Amino acid sequence: MIPAHGGHTHAAGSGTDWGVVVPVVALLVVAAGYVALALLRRRDHRGWSGWRTVSFVTGIALLVAGLVPALIPLPDGTFVVHMYQHLLIGMYAPLALVLGAPATLLLRSVPHRYGRVIGRLLGSVPMGVLAHPVTALVLNVGGLYLLYTTPLYQATLDNPALHHVVHLHFFLAGYLFAYSIAGPDPAPHRPSVPARLVVLGVAILGHAVLAQLLYAGVLVHVQAPAHDLKAGADLMYYAGDIAELLLALAMVSTWRPEPGRRPAGRRRAGATQPATAGGV
Questions:
Q1: Quick check: 192 and 132 in contact, CB under 8 A?
Q2: pTM of the predicted protein model
């Protein structure tokens, strides 16, 4: 039986793994840039939420922890370590980063002419398609099924470049999904909260089914000892549920009534009142 993640320890005896060092350094630079802009914005009359700053920095820390297996207190080269990395890189870190509202901070920090360019990009049709919850769902959950039910996972054990590409996909798909469901940043084409709840429900079901398949070792291409595979599947099932619950809470917390609409009770009460001048 081949160790589930043995191929991901390739750098241990072959010098520096630049595929990890470069992203970690880049993440630290991004974190420093965010904190600098946040401190500048706190001097404005609108200010900037300290909680958003904490959330973004926490997301960076989770990403670094996911990229460096040595920071995970588990035996390296196991499937359960891979699953920890998947959860940190693809679910928890993206949610924390999204809640930091980096695009909003950037829009408040750049000159107006650049802000208009960013605004047009966010409101463009291609961005609307890419950032639609259904698209994000396919890239996120569909990517997981592709990884574990095909020989792709085993290929990442022997190909360091492919391994890093998979991690990049985990992160981008996870960020896109969190943004499309509950992101506080501008999203002109985002559907209603009930529609997003349905998409989130499908994602929860998709993760649960895949975790069960991994636990049973059915229809999956992961060569790992049974106990290791089951431990990774359990982690995916329970920790994944927690991440999706946090995502649901983040979405509901931003739910606002649609402009121009009043609660049904008030409309009924208003219906018995005589119309005033001007129809107000």
A1: no
A2: 0.85
